[in-house]
Amino acid sequence: MRIATFNLESLDLAPDGAAVFAHRATVLGPQLDRLRADILCLQEVNGQHVADSAGRELTALTRLLEGTAYRNFHLVASAGVDGKGVADVHNLIILSRWPARESEALRHRLVPPLPYRSLTAAPAEARDLALEWDRPLLYAVFELPSGAPLHVVNLHLRSPLASPIPGQKLSAQSWGSLAGWAEGYFAATLKRSGQALEARLLVEQIFDAEPQALVAVCGDLNAGEEETPSRILQATVEDSGNAALSGRALQALEGRLPEARRFTVLHGGRRRMLDHILCSAALAVRCRGVAADNDGLPDELSMAEDDPRSNHAPLVADFDL
């Protein structure tokens, strides 16, 4: 069985016409097929308006999948922050060969919004903030042919870009003070780590009910293996100091890649491993191989606007189940 994760980089219908989207599909479709995944976690899938309806549908994704081996796969999607159908941008998707036995989009169910007193917000009356996640995490349980349940969590944690602080931004891209920017960056760090904490608490609940659970936490963490969000999720014995809790740790499978292949993003020539498949011990012991499809990965700082590729490489793991 193969589990894969892939950030599609804002998959959407192109405003410039069908030909532009078709060009992306001719690149992304074969890349998806090369993964040969049985379960595929996708990030950054945008929702499209439907005529005569206030809701949105996953039209772009449906069209992309039409020409792939995933066209008849079962689909689980996250909802927007209002809980009413898919969001306009950055939906999470899990495609599976098997139907989900249960699924949930979690946002602040286990970790409430963080009350925060800003130091730089203006006016002073605007300083009492609540730090909320930009998007939910997506959780699904699948029954494998053996009858065993497989727990899959699809994550897209907040990027390290500074979070807006009231009265501190001159425009969408420009800050009025470095103090405001620094606090915004700090707030973004709290949000990203808070999302990771909610996912870790979900994993704890899974282990409470099923100590030998097969768990895969997949997605774009916007963080490397040694950064705080990843460490919260992995919860290694080195960090906890308690070997009795080792069965609840998650293993980062990218560690099995040769160092030269251990990257999913190129940023100004730097190789970054931001996309991960983290597995419970019971699942990791069954892993037979890991691959990152990073040949030809563009450098995100020098990509042309019309480049059809994603700026992330997909990651796939093969399991003997």
Keywords for this entry:
globular; alpha+beta; six-stranded mixed β-sheet; about 25% helix; Deoxyribonuclease I, Chain A; about 325 residues; 6 helices
Secondary-structure map:
Blueprint: E1 2-11, H1 18-35, E2 39-45, E3 48-49, E4 56-57, H2 59-66, E5 74-77, E6 91-96, E7 100-106, E8 114-117, E9 128-131, E10 137-143, E11 149-156, H3 178-209, E12 214-220, H4 228-234, H5 237-240, E13 250-252, E14 265-267, E15 270-272, E16 275-280, H6 281-284, E17 287-292, E18 315-319
Helix pairs in contact: 1-2, 3-4
Please sum up the structure shown.
With 321 residues, this protein is of the alpha+beta class.
Number of domains: 1
- Give the SSE order as H and E letters: EHEEEHEEEEEEEHEHHEEEEHEE
Tell me the strand order in the biggest sheet. 5-6-2-1-18-17
The main β sheet shows up as: 6 strands, mixed
CATH fold-level name: Deoxyribonuclease I, Chain A
Residue share in β-strands: 25-35%
CATH homologous superfamily label: Endonuclease/exonuclease/phosphatase
Task: Give the CATH level 1 class.
Answer: Alpha Beta
Average residue pLDDT: 96
Calculate Rg over CA atoms: 20 Å
The portion of residues assigned to helices is 10-25%
Structural class: alpha+beta
Question: Unreliable segments (pLDDT under 50, ≥5 consecutive)?
Answer: none
Q: What is the approximate shape?
A: globular
